[in-house]
Amino acid sequence: MTDGGGTRDADVVVVGAGPVGLAAAVHARAAGLEVLIVDRRTGTLDKACGEGLLPGALRAVQALGADPPGHPLTGISYRAPGRHADHRFAAGPGRGVRRTALHEALGERADAVGAPLVYGRVTALRQDAAGVEVEVVPGSRAGETGGARAPVTLRAGWVLGCDGLHSAVRRLAGLDAGTGRSGGRPVRNRYGLRRHYEVAPWSDLVEVHWSPHAEAYVTPVAAGVVGVALLGPRARSGAASGAGFDALLRTQFPELSARLATATSAGRLLGAGPLRRRSRRRTAGRVRLVGDASGYVDALTGEGVRVGLAQADAAVRHLGDPDAYERAWRTVTRDYRTLTTGLLAWAASPARRAIVPAAARAPWLYGAVVERLAR
Predict the structure, then answer these.
(1) What stretches in the chain show pLDDT beneath 70?
(2) Is residue 113 part of a domain?
(3) Which of 124, 251, 259, 320 is least surrounded by Cβ atoms within 10 Å, i.e. has the fewest?
(4) In the chain, where does DSSP find H-type helix?
(5) pTM of the predicted model over 0.85
(6) CATH value at residue 285
(7) Is the bond preceding 116 in cis, omega lying within 30 degrees of 0?
């Protein structure tokens, strides 16, 4: 798609058509830039996640011109057998939204503003002083037939790597720093599984159930559907099968398991992990890493979408200034990184069992933390 003489196919190539990539494309079009989005996956994209848009995330999605359907979320409840701590958002509700619904709404918005999608897998990345070339092995849309296709090269002024935890752009740009270490020791990787149940939501709060070894997030996403996401180390997060999920739910969260005993599971069981990812920097020449691709601590605080959307905005605003984007990235992720790292350390210590009792005894502190997350 390039004539070899340096002409550009777009000002910006966005790699990754998840919510963060689509948001970045919308921001770039609003800035007057020509955009191409590249993703190897076709159709509506799904992901193993908690699916709760906290109030700040919902406002950010709506500011992009999208308004996906879902179920109101009025707060967060930390729960353990016999104890719970509830806090309702001060600034209005968030929304439980199926990831597929969020993708469809943002995808329609990106298409409406003129950000076309190219199906293909990124296999190489080359830079020079004037731009970036991305080699893409084209994919096929659903229903298309034909053999392997020859790679094409897209040339752009910048590339935004919005391609998630296992980012190809991060690796190809030499920015991958692995999962990292904590206190000089290797980090114990955590994983997630998510399943939906056809049952009327029993609460308009996101419930976070704590067991000695894992967490369960219950999010109402429609009038008759709740999502349940389980987080923990690999040995505790369950095998990537329905039986493994059920066994973990039954042994670690018996009260929740009993409530869901007669509910019908809906859709596929999805998994994700390892969750912790690090990058050396968020910039390399004309490449910017955005969202989970730029580094991720854990899903424990449920802030992934909000933080990713803020990064997408910052990346576009600072396309021409990598140092400014690095500073903006640190600013928009600081609360997430600090709170999530601290809560993870607490959860991994012998004091884990005290998390819910402490939240119940100090509702002012628990509420302040929830409000910080909900901004």
Answers:
(1) 1-6, 140-148, 179-187, 234-243
(2) yes
(3) 320
(4) 19-30, 55-63, 99-112, 168-172, 234-237, 242-252, 254-259, 304-317, 322-347, 355-361, 363-374
(5) yes
(6) 3.50.50.60
(7) no
